[in-house]
Amino acid sequence: MKVANLSSTLTTNNSNYSVSTALKAELENKSKSNNDDPFIIADLREVRKRLEEWRNHLPMVEPYYAVKCNPDPMILKILCAEGIGFDCASQEEIKLILDQGVSPSKIIFANIVKTSVHLQYAKERKVRLMTFDNVDELHKIKIHYPDAEAIIRILIQNTKAQYSLGDKAGAPMSSVGNLLQEARDIGISVVGVSFHVGCRCFDPISYRNALTQAREVFEIGKAHGYQFHTLDIGGGFPGDPKKDGSIAEVARAIKEELHANFAANVRVIAEPGRYLVASAYTLAACVIGRRLKDTWLDGGNTKDRLTEADKKWMYYLNEGLYGCFSRVPSQLIIVKPKILLYNGEFSYRPDCELENQLLEEPRYDSIVWGPTCDTTDCLFKSISLPELEVNDWLVFESMGAYTTSASTVFNGFQKTKLHYINSV
Ligand SMILES: *Cc1c(COP(=O)(O)O)cnc(C)c1O
Predict the structure, then answer these.
(1) What is the C-alpha to C-alpha distance for residues 112 and 171, in angstroms, rounded to an integer?
(2) DSSP letters along 64-84, please?
(3) Interhelix angle for 44-57 vs 73-81, to 10°?
(4) Per the residue annotation, which of 88, 286, 373, 378 is the catalytic one?
(5) DSSP E strands: which ranges in 135-211?
(6) Residue 352 among the catalytic residues
(7) How many whole angstroms separate alpha carbon 9 and alpha carbon 42?
(8) What is the pLDDT of residues 297-310, one digit of tens each?
(9) Which of 278, 276, 205 is nearest to 51 (CA)?
(10) Under a CB-based contact definition with an 8 Å cutoff, are residues 235 and 272 in contact?
(11) SS3 at position 9
(12) How far apart are the CA of 109 and the centre of ligand 1, in A?
């Protein structure tokens, strides 16, 4: 993992400091040194704000941050200092968190299929709490960590999440009885129930249904001699307060269901990922090349023959699908640019959408490519943009979740550098 380059930190006590100011300052730096590399402004204040909001809305639910979403060391430091828990899926993630001095009791090993080596590591480091959803995993746990505390992950169907996890994880309700019987027979301690409604779920009903189902599993547990004490309501919470709205509605539904269906002594945890970090990152990328589609075969001569309406621009950005945008094709993240620097002019306004920027400029249907030589490295196959030039910049907000953590260095393009601020 890339550790923060603290020498380039823009942290300041200037009371008006904002993401916008930081973007502008960094563009100026870059322009001085003729550097067109993409960069990210990471606003750590935003992470604190999200956690504060969580605690206001869901004080009875302990967050266990899903590390895979963004293991940025500066973010982890804040979350560790705040004393929250962590959802880890592998040995390295567990190690990363334990190395910050977090107690193993504040970690849930929330991967329903664990590598034996990772399980042995969990045992060595006393990370007891872990999820399962199938018989083979129970046997694996029995072999490598018989004293583990297991949580049964159940499948929630038909949720209104925008990115479903149900194909890969979760025991169907019809299998729960057999799984718990098997666990009982081989002597595994099952202590609770977990679910994940899917990512980007803004629908309170989905959480209500999931909680009703979890409540049933508490009963099935009882029938198999288990007294569950932990309920894990997973992740999926909306991550972008500007576009997705607040968690108020979802939180209200969860609170009501918890109150109505679960005893007060049941410990309730959640595994928010995107919710805590998405809004913290703002990514700026530079237009490093362009050409008109269909004109390159004859060296651009067709340009004159094209009518304005036929013009289709192709732009090459220096961030793409092998970098921070790797989860765009799967729609785990949805991105939309704004214009940051246009013709040397700083054009970013936090409240102004792309559609309302540079209204006097004609728009063209455009294709936006990433920087690698792979033809699939295409960010937008069709997007309406004003005519951009090389050295213009685009900006993408809410880029903190599933971006840097899922980016590669394919074709030699290095991971995008971070600049940390604490906005006021
Ligand atoms: C990815 C994941 C999360 C986090 O999901 P978000 O949608 O980012 O909140 C939580 N729990 C598990 C088991 C996951 O795999």
Answers:
(1) 10
(2) EEEGGG---HHHHHHHHHTT-
(3) 40
(4) 373
(5) 149-153, 189-194
(6) no
(7) 10
(8) 556 566 566 666 67
(9) 276
(10) yes
(11) coil
(12) 12
